Amino acid sequence: QVQLQESGPGLVKPSQTLSLTCTVSGGSFTTGPYYWSWFRQSPAKGLEWIGYITWSGGTFSAPSLKSRTSLSRDTSKNQFTLQLSSVGPEDTAMYYCARGGIGSVVDWGQGTQVTVSS
């Protein structure tokens, strides 16, 4: 079974860049046709899809976050990463990585809390 684990700082200062890594184990990261997604959840917005990177390296981001989002992967480490720039308090949330896309997630990471505060 595929397992995913998020890692990164739990506290980010306003205007800085949030950077999270998801490490995938138990499966091949480059095997299609899976998408590898980032989501976040907060009381104010509920569950929100941020974007995904495909098994072949293509990236797609939510329109509302696209200008601040960068998605990448390191196939040698079986990891994919999220960078969200110019963060503000509204970016405070539990962040999850997942295997699958919108409405088709088959595996979730346990999540990592990120707080934006000075």
- What is the average of the pLDDT values? 94
**Termini separation (Å)?**
39 Å
Q: Measured on Cα atoms, how large is the radius of gyration? A: 13 Å
The largest sheet is: 7 strands, mixed
Helix-strand category = mainly beta
The poorly predicted ranges are none
Q: So what's the oligomer here?
A: single chain
Helix content: under 10%
What general form does the structure show?
Answer: globular
| Beta-strand fraction estimate | over 45%
Sequence of secondary-structure elements:
EEEEEEEEEEE
Number of strands: 11
Treating each run of at least 4 consecutive H or I residues as one helix, how many helices? 0
Give a quick set of tags describing it:
118 residues; mainly beta; 0% helix
Overview of this structure, please?
It is a single chain. By secondary structure, the protein is mainly beta. Helix content is 0%, strand content 52%. It contains no helices and 11 strands. The strands form 2 sheets. Strands 2, 4, 5, 6, 9, 10 and 11 form a 7-stranded mixed sheet that branches. Strands 1-3-8-7 form a 4-stranded antiparallel sheet, with no helix packed on it.
Brief rundown of the structure:
The chain has 118 residues and is mainly β. It has strands spanning 3-7, 11-12, 18-25, 35-42, 46-54, 59-61, 69-74, 79-84, 93-99, 107-108, 112-116. Strands 2, 4, 5, 6, 9, 10 and 11 form a seven-stranded mixed β-sheet that branches. Strands 1-3-8-7 form a four-stranded antiparallel β-sheet, with no helix packed on it.
